[in-house]
């Protein structure tokens, strides 16, 4: 059962999301928060697997709430799915940078919301193909002074580096397996090793690191 916390300052929106998710056989809503501060408190108390987090809320916004939730001890299994009104909202970049596993537009369909929760709950990132390229290009454009590539990148094998590039290109494990002509189990092993060596939480962080460090350059075809 996927435990979900919904955080949104609009009561009707929050209640609608909560009702929709709680109606699913494999999802249970363990809390509803009207602002970031309440979201942090409820996340600590109720231990959700996924937090559906609105970015723009009064007081503590969704970015700071995400940072605090994911920074606390024992939060390794928590995933944050941020909600935004625009596909290139500047705040989305910051949310991903502090550890969110992906984002969803507020005008998404009911099925898309339910699917998104399931996707991030299993450890995958939700970076819609139609906006991922724009998102990453804008993110890196805002950070022109690229930080030095982490030394841990040097510990990756050639195959692990290849897998990292394909993850950055938005490919799933099944698609990577087909591309490399190996089993999906083998790909999962490579992905796990990449995450462990680089200290990554999930695929969203892998994408961010690949672009920030220059492993993949915006405008080049990672796939």
UniProtKB/TrEMBL annotation:
Keywords: DNA-binding, Phosphoprotein, Transcription, Transcription regulation. GO terms for biological process: phosphorelay signal transduction system; regulation of DNA-templated transcription. Residues 149-214 form the HTH luxR-type domain. It comes from Actinomadura physcomitrii. This is Response regulator. Gene3D superfamilies: 3.40.50.2300. Transmembrane segments: none annotated. GO terms for molecular function: DNA binding. Residues 3-121 form the Response regulatory domain. PANTHER family: TRANSCRIPTIONAL REGULATORY PROTEIN NARL-RELATED (PTHR43214:SF24), TWO-COMPONENT RESPONSE REGULATOR (PTHR43214).
